[in-house]
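Dear colleagues,

As part of the handover before I leave the project, I'm documenting each prediction I ran so the next person doesn't have to rerun anything. This entry is a single chain, and its sequence is reproduced below.
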Amino acid sequence: MLVVRVMAWITRRSSDRSLVAALTALAAVVFGWGFQRGRTHPYYTAAVRSMGADWHDFVYGSFDPRGFITTDKLPGAFWVQALSVRMFGFHPWAVLLPQVLAATACVPLLFVTVRRWAGRGAGYAAAVAYTLTPVTVALSRTNIPDALMVFFMVVAAHALWRWADGGRRATWWLAASAVWLGVAFNVKMGQALLVVPVFAGACFLLGVGSRWWRLGRAAAYGTLVAAVSLAWMVFVTLTPASQRPYIDGSVHNSVWEMVFQYNGFGRIGGQGAGTDPLAGGAVLSGAGGPAGLGRIFGAASAGQISWLVPAAVAGLAAGLWAAWRSARKAKTAFGTGLAPEVDTSADSTAQQGISPNPTRRRTTAGYLFWGGWLGIYGLAFCAATGIHSYYTSTLAPPVAALAGAAFIAAARNRSWYLPALVAMTAGWAFLASRETPHYQPWLRWFVLGAAVLAIVLLPWARISRNRMLGSLSAVAVATAALAAPAVWATSVLTRRGDTMGSVAASAGPPQAMFGGRKNSAAVNTEVEHGLRDFGRGPDPQVVRFLKHNRDGRPYAAAVDGSMTAASYLADNVPVLPMGGFTSDAPVPTVQGLAQLVRTGQVRYVVVSGMRMGGRSVAAEDRDAWVTGHCHSIPGFAPGTGKAATGLFDCS
């Protein structure tokens, strides 16, 4: 019986199965080619190593092996990576494998989801567009959480549209969608929650029943998302502080403060995470470019995500306009008695709360769903104070879906729509390529030539109805639309991992760590030099000294900040990360550090000039205590520069 079912599954729509399998295999090559050479994020990798070695650290998302402090993010992504490490051992490829698998799985999931809304052609186009999105390819080569967040969001979207199809298990699909969105929150916090109103709105539009009944269903959906999202936070809050690590990214050891202030409103209001780590807390606009409506199209982010955004927006506008005109005509027809009668009786699908989904209503809901996803994240990224360009990976699914649907709809329309769409897409590719004039200067002219060829061939192929001309025009259209993102995406395949690439993942030419700020060149240089120091690891002389003089203490030394600690932990030197990621967290306090010294748990302190945050009171107090109560070890005196390191003996 099982063999019969498998054969039936393969033979049903066999062409779809084969093409989707081929696209998935292509995506696996693009996302996974040489991924073992990728460079893991030093900070996140230290946490994954700790979580993969101890279940207590795993549960609480501990950064260090002794469970002193957590990471400054929720641990959802690191849970997945830590499980991979537990299965395969601690290797860079084991840390990166979940990102490759997640990015690859998005391709067939996106195809199926878009096909349910706009048909097979749009599904194929969306799958190809997603595969060739540069920022998505860049993220598959580092263990930054965004790749896994996007995967869980795509899974949630797929489950939502499965619910819209009805069936015996429809309610379970709706619940699954809410659960996966909650999981996405535990990967990247508020960034994943921004899309919840869009999903709940689609639940309202695609459901049946009275307006209040559909509103109640949407509210229940949002409630389930919130319950799953907050479950771990509630669990940590109920755990006594003495039995868990300190919550990094908070001043009061609060996971709520870490999520909603440090990683939430602080990103918008210029507090906490959106500050310059080398300028005493001065507000940065972030590596994603200066805040404003043009950020996505600026030099920092244009090459990562924007290539198909004009086509997506044009397709969204045309789709909503067509839906409005269709609804208006239908309303007029009903008013004049020209429309056929509609059977409004409840069928088995409606009895389960699923809309019979007439084509017009389903199509409109799809445009609102993908358009809402695109719009809400586009506005959020333009308004946020401190972001990285790789945050725009959240836009990849809606851009791919809307652009794919736009090109297929234009190709079916025998008018000027497709040539206009090709001209718009190629025109923007030409302008976007000028933002990086020294990178692949031939690319913009190649795209422009392909667009001219496509515009010339399209009417000729339609008039002559020549199959060869039709195929050639289709190739020209695909080249004009996808050549630029494909070149940027494939640039990652041959790039050997570097520290900057692991911290600020991007395709195309290497990006500065921080941008969009006056006199940022000097700041970028200092930060990048410091990160290269992290990439090379700590001073070998310091490492040898600490290993030789540990004398059975639980900590070989206390070090300034988790990023510095990560390089020592990578060398199997157990250290105490003072101040967390930014070095600003009030842990340990001066009294706590003194107590650790008195009880013999810590003797040496490593002080580094390279800090990821500003000069907080807690950090300055610790520095004052170390310089006042400890003596500098000869040969390890603090040097000069932002990344200089000094070693102090506090015995």
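Confidence is low (pLDDT under 50) at residues 1-11, 271-286, 336-357, 514-530. Residues 12 and 558 are 62 Å apart (CA to CA).

All the best with the project,
I.
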